[in-house]
Amino acid sequence: MTNAPRPTRFAGESWRTASAMHARVVGAVIMRDLQTRFGAGYFGFLLGLLMPLGHLGIVITVSTLIQHASPIGTDRPIFLMTGVLPFIIWLYSHRQIMTTLSYNRPLLFFPGVDIFDLFLSRIVIELLNSTIIVIVVISAMTIVGYDVHAYKWPDFIYGLILAWALGLGTGLFFGSLTSIMPLAIMFGLILGPLMWATSGIFFLPDGLPESLQKILYFNPLSHVVDGVRLSYFSEYSSDFFNSTFLYIFIVSAIAVSLALTAAIRRVA
Q: How far apart are CA 109 and CA 40, in angstroms?
């Protein structure tokens, strides 16, 4: 494990001074991450925005060629959007937060830079990135000609926030675990395809046999997707969705990850 210096708080240093220092560090790391990810020009930024549309476009195109009917509503692209959008938000947040230390560990050699600063900068970026993704996807669907109108908009947005929070929890967990077990990042990457196939993007959990529902029940993203669809389609009802399980999972994942990160910080 890398013996990286940690910021030292002096006896006369106030919390206000320390907070200002960390805020400057987080701001600097955010600017570095943005430039590294998107480049100095606008092309990289635009490419980053088009990738979610590419995911959704491929899914809609393949589904159209197969010509499967939508389990809810009349437009299958809308049905797919309510599944793909929360998945993309979770995946991008999970993947980027998970690789925080892998990409930015050399920054810990600079005085005043802390592990929490690196994670916080990624968290802020992914919150902004998720917000932009939602705006771009919904705007693109509307421009193409689909009637994007959620039954309960506040609950719909809240469901997407839960997708981001879940990505925060799983990303922090695998990202912090990577410091003591490098292979953890491989398991974190494998989680993406598993979630893609088992989160109800292409189907409704209520329509599956009870034995499969019991297995999918322990996939938190399947509850996020089902909750998003409950808020979007007025005619949809579900016995599968369990908000209590989802909240407990997200809070537990974040709490365990923060404790693990704090332990790593002390021995790093």
A: 25
Provide CB contacts within 8 A for 94, sequence distance 6+.
166, 167, 170, 171, 174, 188, 191, 192
User: Token pair 């959008």 is at which residue?
Assistant: 85
Q: How far is CA 140 from the centre of its chain?
A: 21
CA dihedral sign, ordered 51, 163, 230, 201: positive
* pLDDT tens sequence across 179-228: 888 888 999 999 999 999 999 998 999 989 999 999 999 999 999 999 99
Secondary structure of 30-50 as H, E, C letters = HHHHHHHHHCCCHHHHHHHHH
Question: Which has the closest alpha carbon to 199: 183, 215, 187?
Answer: 215
Alpha helices in 99-183 (DSSP H): 100-104, 115-144, 153-177
Q: Which residue has the higher pLDDT, 175 or 109?
A: 175
DSSP string, 199-256: SSSSS-GGGS-HHHHHHHTT-HHHHHHHHHHHHH-TT---SS--HHHHHHHHHHHHHH
Nearest partner of 205 among 241, 166, 242, 243, judged by Cα:
241
pLDDT for position 187? 93
Q: Among 16-30, 134-148, 233-247, where is mean pLDDT lowest?
A: 16-30
When comparing pLDDT for 38 and 92, which is higher? 92
pTM for the full predicted model: 0.87
Nearest to 25 by CA among 94, 102, 115, 98: 115
Amino acid (one-letter) located at 157: I
